[in-house]
Amino acid sequence: MQSAGNTLGSAMIQFTDVSVRFGERQVLKNISMTVPFGETLAILGGSGAGKTTILRLIEGLVQPDTGSIMVDGQEIVGLSEQQMTHVRNAMALVFQGAALFDSVTVRENVGYRLWDQGTLSEKTIESRIAESLHFVGLDDIAEAMPGELSGGMKKRVAIARALANHPRLILYDEPTAGLDPINTHIVKELICRLHGQEHVTQIVVTHDIETAYQVADHLIMIHQGEKIFDGTVSELKMSTDERVQAFLHPDAVLSASDEGVYSAAR
Ligand SMILES: Nc1ncnc2c1ncn2[C@@H]1O[C@H](COP(=O)(O)OP(=O)(O)OP(=O)(O)O)[C@@H](O)[C@H]1O
Ligand SMILES: [Mg+2]
Asked: What is the mean pLDDT of the chain?
């Protein structure tokens, strides 16, 4: 990928008025957002809000109906599949599930994209695999099969696979979903450690507020396809938007509505 963005001092990701419709359904409405180089953005929002769709737009797997998406200084809307492949080479994805290939070893899972690209020597690929597994603290399971691993370990292997490609942009879709507290902590700590590594920009989609608070420089919140918040953690906490507050404090909203039902019944 060209790094025109660096020289121009612009952002790694820039959305301007992006809208997406699936059939009759408007899934994203006029989303504008900026992710500066080297920062971590968290995207918060309830189920079906449109968070994964934002990641798919960045990957070029969904085309917007209107708007512009700049990745590293390059407009990606309307790029051909071949042009998009170059852009994708600088990105890595950590999916909602770990999405490992079950029939090959951890080592092969981590290295497959590098072998597939065919540009690096075998020696370099092996050292990338070792370095990535070391980063996630799983040096000793290179020859294990995914079926032998816990969910948390699989997620860490998925992160190692993302890192092996030396990405400039890492996209995570619900990286801590379904993990126990210890593995959640490990994954959050990995994301924090990657923050501040040279030229790594990260986008973390999550509905877990604690994860977002800990990893993000700034956050956006999506509600029914609209961006209803864009700012820092402390700005989020102080937001007076009712939809933001309802997301942050669902218990308060639920107990208030219980009270309503209760008083109505009295
Ligand atoms: N390819 C598609 N075709 C039709 N509708 C789609 C498609 N992809 C997503 N949608 C719809 O768009 C809306 C947003 O989906 P999206 O996956 O972005 O939500 P999300 O915020 O990631 O939700 P979750 O937290 O449950 O993962 C949903 O209503 C979904 O059903
Ligand atoms: Mg999703």
From this structure: 89
